[in-house]
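Look at a sample.

——
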Amino acid sequence: MFRVLGPLEVLIDSRPIRLGGIKQRATLGFLLLKANQVVPTSQLLSALWPDKDPPASARKVLQNAVWSLRAALSVTKGTDMLRLSTQAPGYILQVDPAYVDLFRFHQLAERGRDEKAQPDRAAAILREALATWRGTALSDLVENGISWPELAAVENARLDTQQDWFDAELACGRHQSVLGELKAMVEAHPLRERACGQLMLALYRCGRHADALAVYSGLRTSLVEDLGLEPGPALQKLQHAILTHDPSLTLDPATVPAPARDVAVVRPPRPMPPIPAPRGPSDPRRAHLTLAMVRVRTCADATDPVRVDYELAAATRMVRSGIEELGGTVATSIGSATLAVFGRPPTRGGDEERAVRAALTLRDCFADGMGRGLVMQVAVATGETLVLTEPNSRLTVSGALVDRCHQMLSAVPEGTVWVCPRTRELIGDGFDALPAAEGAWEIRGVGGHDPERDSDLALIHGLLERALRRNSPHLVTVLGDSDDLLDRLTGLVNGPRVLDGRTVPDDPLSAAAELVTELCAVAPEDTPEVVRGRLRTTLGAGGPAESVVSALLPLLRPEHSAQPGTLAAWQLLLEQAARAQPLVVLLRDLHLAGDDLLDAVEELADLNAPLPLLVVAAARSALLKRRPSWGGGKPHAACITLDPPQSGTINRLRHLMASASIGGRCDGELPDQWRRPAPLTPPWDLGRPEPRLAALDVPPLTHGIRLTTPDSADTLCRAVFDDVADDELALASTVRLDGPCPPPR
């Protein structure tokens, strides 16, 4: 069964099959919309890249998508339901219309219209047609930016069918039962005259004559002001009939189908989910939370209140952006103070440490005033407080804990982080702390750790929180020497299961094999039958076919030859594990992995299924040389480069927060004094030699290696830009140039 009236699904024996990444799914979706027609390649390319010119590799991407679809749909072989073949000038998807919900919808809609002489029967058939919809057509593709004219045509067909159903229901005298759906349609599509007329008629028959005329008045105002048009003759005639109480608007009881005697009249099910009524705020409940209150002040001239207001508004946006990037939730902002919550219920532990790390990162970001004369203070408090969650609103916290945090903030010196005694007790000795006034503690930094690495760790942990909160897969790429960082991340994770694998030279699938071994608790001495049993247990009862288990065996037993579907089975295994328990997957030295494994890892970030999954891909910079577009364009992908202290994560977060201020725009132009031009030729800083040498896998400067020193600093910089040999770059890594860098040739 092929289902396009909602998220794209292919069901075999009532179970969905994997369809791959966004390009692959979009190819299948477009071919299904034009099923049994030859679709030119140029039209498919325009559909896959709707807002820009297709790249040079577009045809190859399309060919790979078609090839992958054929492999994914191969389970349908032996039936006559589908065939995807090449036919000039493109491709054709031949499918039995009985297996596509879109064709079934059109068929039922036509049957319902043919029965309009019998409104009760027509209403039943049209209701069945509308019940085939599960949401917006191809909603998973629409969420990823797909917008095709064909989808608009399908949506219009649904609206037309719904209006036919309204006509049939009104003819049966069920005007009260459809009144809610009619109002919803008119609100969503206010210029559909037919729907407005149906709503007017339903309101009139419900005795709401004034409301019926108000619908006409609202439509006429919109048409005249927006388009310069008057309502059509049919609607004008209906308005006149309502004004004169024309008897033709009243149903003749003899024409209304009567229910069978002695049978209870049951209200028919609605063809579309009803719009939920607004709910009141839920009851407040107490929860253990960590709060961070951040105040940013400006050194702007207080005699210019307009400039002060603009600068504070932009600074508040910057703080809000930084808090959300570091894993916190902004509860409220009042003036220049922002209240952030760490551990939004349900909490996962470690919230106080996460809040303190975020506070230190923000402190370092504002250490020099962001170049705009800004100073900040942060107060962190932990304890029980009242939590109120309102529909479509931010989390609201109140109580003594908020007051305590605010009182502490008033005493915090500028550029300092203070925490309450309870927070100090919970974070232990992992931070350098000094006693402050009134029992508070000043946090100087993270004890025994590089503050830059702490900021990187806070970013990754914040992305983990986002993956858990949004219940969606995320991919984080960490470039550089990351073993220590990942080891510390493993110690901080509380709740999700952590799987750790490393790629070794000459074995491009070793990382994937380690993950399966750890996940399934496979021992080296286990027999193949025992291994199969452990794989079946991990996949779960009623899990995938035995072919998936067979495809995974090459990862665990070298005597089994690899299969084309091995990595697809590996992905499925991770999906099943993440459904059972939130999952963090660490893949070390991924730059040594094969292309097939790299493709599989990238596809994990494209999964549309709700999965609490964070994939951390640790690699050297060689990964980007192999895959320049790695992770690019994906909505849930990020890349972190581990740089020397005070030059990496802090600067990236500063840039992100500065971007959040929208260049100083806040409902108007920011005064020119805010903007400071960037230097035209920033200093060239090659950083410390040790991380650079390790990241480039360059041997240390020892005897037996002869290096040629460039004649001047200018020549050295030009050589670095031109990607010189590794030995020259090793020497360049030991030099720091504080002058302007020459432009590349």
Remarks:
- The chain has a mean pLDDT of 75.
- The longest strand covers residues 374-389.
- Residues 149-171 form the longest helix (23 residues).
- The chain has 27 helices and 19 strands.
